[in-house]
Amino acid sequence: MNLSAYSDIQNFIDGEFQPTRSGNYIDNINPATLEVIGKIPDSNEKDVSEAVEAAKKAFAGWSVTPVEKRFQILNRIAGIIDEHLNELALAETTDNGKPLWLSKKVDIPRASANFRFFATGIMHFSSESHMMEDRAINYSLRQPIGIVGCISPWNLPLYLFTWKIAPALAAGNCVIAKPSEITPVTAYLLSHICREAGLPPGVLNIIHGTGNIAGEAVVKHPDVKAISFTGSTRAGERIASIAAPKFKKLSLELGGKNPNIIFADCNWEKMIKSSIQSSFSNQGEICLCGSRILVEESIYEKFRKEFVERTQQLRVGDPLEEHSQQGAIVSKMHFDKIMRCIDTARQEGGRILCGGKKMQPGRRCANGYFIEPTVIEGLGPGSQTNQEEIFGPVVTLQSFKTEEEALRLANASGYGLAATIWTQDISKANRVAAKVESGIIWVNCWLLRDLRTPFGGMKNSGVGREGGWEALRFFTEAKNICIEL
Ligand code: NAD
What domains are defined for the chain? Predict the structure, then answer.
């Protein structure tokens, strides 16, 4: 299997590669070089209907395939992903603009880990029984839902695509999956891997295209019974408005504006190193990045000086070069959005402490979409800059005097995805963690992930939780059976 050839992406329906019924294709652009690397099918509802028909046919077999067999196939997919680490990582970097070392170290290994985790998870998944003394016994069946839709974003393309698909398949569902039209390549390569691993035709169908045409066709299809979506809050709202009146099961993992709360009694070295990572990893394009840095007043000056110095030392450059810590922004549209947000911060009276400009690394990346890591101060919690998700290499600094003020600032956001707390006082850490309105809290660390834990946000950051049993529960329908004794 040659996974280096991906210029002509096709839909994967019923185990076959198919051109889109629309006949239309979109250019796929490498954001670091602006080179056109291939064509993406601009699929429509006809492609989605064919995929649903294939999935319906496949469901009869897959839903009753013994879990051990499902385990074997999914585990095989994980193994093939590992074998092709280098090709997949290069494809991810070419498509997304992220550094190659990051794709190799994080994105692709996590994609195989997702399959391996849920392959083994389904072998241990069990349901409950409830005894009513000597009157009756209840037991709950957890049955696959049927045909489910999985829609994912561009920031961690294969990583988040597989985070949805793996539990859906493990639980016995057939899937219609739509990766982001901005980074479709590794999802396309995954279809080859699934074929090689012996996944039966129709069990996983991958449709490429835009959100408002192909994505909405998946959400609207009456035979698609559940939607697992990761992306922007705006698209999540639109999807909920279509799916909720049809009573489809919904899992929505949306945007964030995460606080990074730094108390004076933190472990300084660990905090400052980790804060650089939580601000700028993956060009700041991780929903879990801490974009609002809140610093206790007594250490604010020291923090600002050292944080800005370290930010200025970050090397932004060609994603293929080993020493590039930050690569390209994923697309022109997103690049323009981030630059507009920086302009807004200026207009609101924010001081740009470093960065704020387009970068030109030169050579093959001379025209790519690169932005200097940017630190802004002087804006209050209600400013647009501190309220709206930027999703790029841009953070703001604010100071606080007391624990109460830190909490007020942390919670002064419509979002509630993740937060980081830095303090050596364990009681304070627990107190603050309990009161921050976020689904995920890291204390003295960032992005330390155990795949068994509930993952997701509150407020405008979404509905439902992924990960571990939560994901397997989402992708199954509970049915209680009561037997009188
Ligand atoms: P997006 O909402 O534009 O697109 C995400 C996916 O949804 C894409 O596949 C897109 O084609 C599709 N889509 C868009 N509109 C749709 C519609 N109306 N119907 C069906 N599908 C539709 O998001 P993006 O720009 O790709 O990703 C960035 C966003 O994702 C950020 O807001 C980020 O915070 C969020 N995100 C959240 C998490 C999380 O776990 N909470 C993780 C990663 C990214």
Answer: 11-254+461-484 (3.40.605.10), 259-450 (3.40.309.10)
Q: Return the structure tokens found at 72.
A: 């074997």
Confirm or reject: Cβ of 217 under 6 Å from ligand 1: no
Between CA 217 and CA 219 the distance in angstroms is 6
CA dihedral angle for residue 51, residue 10, residue 110, residue 127, rounded to 10 degrees? 10
Is the Cα dihedral 261, 266, 271, 272 positive or negative? positive
253 flagged as catalytic: yes
Which atom, in ligand 1's list, is nearest to the CA of 389? 32
Task: Round to whole Å and give the CA distance between 224 and 243.
Answer: 10
pLDDT tens digits, one per residue of 414-429: 999 999 999 999 999 9
| DSSP 8-state code for residue 315 | P
* Cβ contact 444:266 at 8 Å: yes
Exposure string (b/e) for 195-226, b if CB count within 10 Å is 16 or more?
A: bebebbbbbbbbbbbbbebbbbbbbbbeebbb
Region 353-371: what's the mean pLDDT? 96
Concatenated DSSP letters of 159-200 = HHHHHHHHHHHHTT-EEEEE--TTS-HHHHHHHHHHHHHTPP
Strands (E), 4-106: 11-13, 16-18, 25-29, 36-41
The CB of 219 under 6 Å from ligand 1? The reply is yes
Three-class SS state of 279: helix
Cα 413–419–423 angle (5° rounding)? 125
Burial class (CB in 10 A: 0-12, 13-18, 19+), 279: buried
User: Ligand 1 centre and the CA of 438: distance in Å?
Assistant: 19
Half-sphere exposure of 262 (CA within 13 A, CB side): 32
Q: Exactly one of 266, 287, 341, 365 is catalytic; name it.
A: 287
Percent of all residues in the chain with a pLDDT value above 90, rounded to a whole number: 98
Q: What is the pLDDT of residues 286-332, one digit of tens each?
A: 999 999 999 999 999 999 999 999 999 999 999 999 999 999 999 99
Known catalytic membership, residue 287: yes
